[in-house]
Amino acid sequence: MKVDGQCQCGAVKFEAEVDPAMVSICHCTDCQNFSGSPWRASVPAPAAAFRITAGSPATYVKTADSGAKRLQAFCGACGSPIYAAAQVDTPTYNLRLGAVNQRAQLPPQRQIWTKSALPWAMDIHALPGTDKG
Known about the structure:
By secondary structure, this protein is mainly β. It is built from one helix and ten strands; from the N terminus they run E-E-E-H-E-E-E-E-E-E-E. The strands form two sheets. A seven-stranded mixed beta sheet has the order 6-7-8-9-4-3-10.
């Protein structure tokens, strides 16, 4: 599926080809910290199918407890997360679903790192909701 997206301010834009069957929600503590949320949703895009079309994201390298290094890319102006990638020659770009324009068409298909999930974050369907804040 062809997707495109941008940060909140529009300074960084991208396009990619993704497989909708690969959308996931991650509950790891790194994703909780990076997103400021109880989880982070993403969809992988192979390097050959991903392209920045405007701007240039700022980056931060996170070293995991395992020693693995992950590049975190975000807009330097508004701070919106864009993707994460392993630091290898041909990485897969894990696009942050909130930055993808077609996010409504990409429902998560799995959850990972559920051991780190906040217990209340696993079931929010019964919470009352409203159309406005």
